[in-house]
Batch of 2 targets.
Target 1
Amino acid sequence: MPISNITVFMPSVLTLVGIPGLQSVQCWIGIPFCAMYLIAMVGNLLLLFIIKSERSLHEPMYIFLGMLGVTDIVLGSSIMPKMLGIFWFHMSEIYFDSCLLQMWLIHTFQCTESGILLAMALDRYVAICYPLRYATIFTHHLVTQIGVVVILRAAILVTVSLVLIKCRLQFYHTTVISHSYCEHMAIVKLAAENVQINKIFGLFVAFTVAGFDLIFITLSYIQIFITVFHLPQKEARFKAFSTCTPHICVFLQFYLLAFFSFFTHRFGSHIPPYIHILFSSIYLLFPPFLNPLVYGIKTKQIRIHVVKMFCS
């Protein structure tokens, strides 16, 4: 691809627009975003405190939930402070390397969250389909190994994407990112060079992580539903379903928002930019906000300890 005469060589500073077309009302949009972020932080920290302090919750299911809470805290904190700085204080400039770091944090912990949701689905699959072998299969050692593998998978794949940007792309058409945070494709689209490899690897990461996890989560829940429907007692069926309900709610909202954001960014040229940017921002902020509420309401053991804490 020929390089235009009007290019910037390795820019040191980039500019984040925020939400294109809605700059005049961004200060108001920041209010519900900030409220969601604060609720997400308080909810996840409370969840982590309860899981850590209650010995009865030191089980694989709740350990995975704790991992999800940590992931949500990091994910929300990677995007919201800078976003609110753009919305409220017009602090739109960001160093190029800081932008790459934000991109790495966001995508790494998105992939990590997907892996944790898969681990939670497998945990429920073993607990319901093989209850007598659950304690011998899901040991604390296995849980630790799963956590390490999930984090390493995400970190390595996203690091390769970052290195491809840093080493391959040196000339840029513009330093203005029409987005409210630093996202892989938003940065790649600025480049004045051949970005085909970057795009292909981005798709590879997305389908390797989300595609692999989604397939195995779906297969796990299909097998769970088959097993539950064959249970002879209605009470046992209801109890099994109640343990899966929070996971299904979190799983559906995470992947539905993820696929909408992914496909509109690449193929939704007819969709107004502000709609895409709004949904992309909500996609990153909504899971950390919703997850502690879903698990706090739907999980009996956590609900009991929350009530005890506030009553005492």
Note: Residues 17 and 236 are 53 Å apart (CA to CA).
Target 2
Amino acid sequence: MAEAAGVPAESPAGCRARAARTVLDQVVLPGEELLLPEQEDGEGPGGAGERPLRLNAAARSRGRVVCGPGLRRCGDRLLVTKCGRLRHKEPGSCSGGGVYWVDSQQKRYVPVKGDHVIGIVTAKSGDIFKVDVGGSEPASLSYLAFEGATKRNRPNVQVGDLIYGQFVVANKDMEPEMVCIDSCGRANGMGVIGQDGLLFKVTLGLIRKLLAPDCEILQEVGKLYPLEIVFGMNGRIWVKAKTIQQTLILANILEACEHMTTDQRKQIFSRLAES
């Protein structure tokens, strides 16, 4: 790709490439090309100018850039593959780079290693449970992947049960594999979810919003009614309150939070608190 100074490159969609830092939290479209700030250029550190992402050794030494959902590396370019808002997370160190991804309103989940998800047991094949996690194929779950499980002490898991676990294997060439224990062999909240309660589906963007450290929605919900709630990165939420009516109210509120403003949400919470 030509890198004429001051002349933006052309993207495959026919639009001029845009600097990633200027479109953060803005809508990007499939086919767009993003330009990332250079850590160093011919003038030395701190020099001005932007170029398409370079994947050679020199670029990696300056700062590793991680492409999340909605972005794809194509040679020396960083291309947008989904419609949504561009997000960026700064790295833990001062090495530059960070994580870029597109926050889209998609409901189809793609398993990712380390994600905690809510699955539904659909079948039992020998010593393996098949779990529906909302992906293109079911995940496998061994009966030994539970805290304290042995060949004699098998977990009480039935077809139709809800399972909260995490992925230890997740890639396009292998069947996803779940476990309900952490690296120390402890359940740490994972396992079979209670029979009561309500399971409902939301967009993946809403799940990330609710799990954000600065999200105020859960704090406000917790002040309404005593509740138990489980979030799955696959877009599933399980909630249980004291009564069925309270459970339904909480589920409706969480679903509506995706499209409500902060003022609208606070008005609803104040009315429910008074009732």
Note: Helices lie at 57-62, 204-210, 217-224, 244-256, 262-274.
